[in-house]
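Blackboard transcription, Thursday session:
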Amino acid sequence: MADYCVRIAEVVSRDLAFREEARRFFDFLENRPEEGVVVDFEGVRTISRSFAHEYILRKKSSSKNIREINMPPNIAKMFDVVQAFKTPEKWLPPPNERNTMTLTI
Amino acid sequence: MFKVLVTASDYPQLVRNYLKYCSYRRMVDQTGKLDLTNITFFHPTTLLPLLILMQKIDDTSIILPRNPDIANYIKIMKRQQTSQGQMTYVSMQLTGQPQEKQIILDRINELGKDVEVVAKNPDAFSLIVYELIQNIYEHSGFKVAYVLAQKYPRISKLEICFVDDGITIPGSFEKIGLRYEKQEHHKAIHDALNGLSSKKEEGRGTGLTNVSRIVKEGFKGEMFLVSGFGAVYLAGSKEPVYYKLDEATSFSGTLVSIRAPLTAGKINIYNVVR
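(Written on the board underneath:)
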């Protein structure tokens, strides 16, 4: 059976934002009879980190053989960021007596 | 006559704007009326929580501003309408519909088409809008939520405010057994900004972190976040300021207010986002 090719900009949106949208997209793919899926990113403008993260999680656990084509550079960069993530970086110093005050009126 | 106090001038503007809301709330608590007669201008950080307050009190208790433009501005938002046309602001009440994020983002892009910081940073603004709306939808359990973006050419700033009346950040952590006492709510906010998540999956808890990093490190802008009895103010290269709030200044929900310089150049968010 030939691979199923889907343009994600048409099925989801040109702006990929919410986890729920990624979940629904993968539920849709899982219900397809084809074993191989080609996700075409042509026309996608923006992606949130949340969408990219959910996409990667669902792809890992998917029964399908999924590959991506026509991924714009900014979208590919967001996937790279998510895949490179190890542990949260403690970038803000904790509250202490010097940097904490009471706010009142 | 009840007077709204002018708050301490050494607080940052975003904090002062929030305190102004607190003064109005106190007016309602003490007099049963919300008298806005003499108001000539609202910042989003004052107006949005005030709109939530207005949803919860009787219309007859509200005295709208004498200034027709300001009164109309409030009426548009109270009627749950989305702002239209050529304006210096965009507003929307959130209801949980997926298309809302696109509408608000398109409006912000429209608002910012002559604004350097928006035109040069579509990825950054989409990420800010998506992640903060995602948080409201997924974590807050809100009944009422608003987004308002306003540009101020005179001071060269773009301000975007997100507000909900949901369970707060400490309340969200409490659902997974992490309890912060009222006097520790600022610590819960710190932990959320440093990647603590109420979700167990690996790689979660980066939304607020990434938004705050884009604003503080990318745009060298400002961010004020209030949730429950805690708050934090972030600005450029300065150290964060954490706030413990009392009954008069606490907020039953979460407010995130962001200010970016209109002339900020292009930033590479992929160097900032984790």
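Lecturer's comment: Chain A is about 40% helix and 20% strand.
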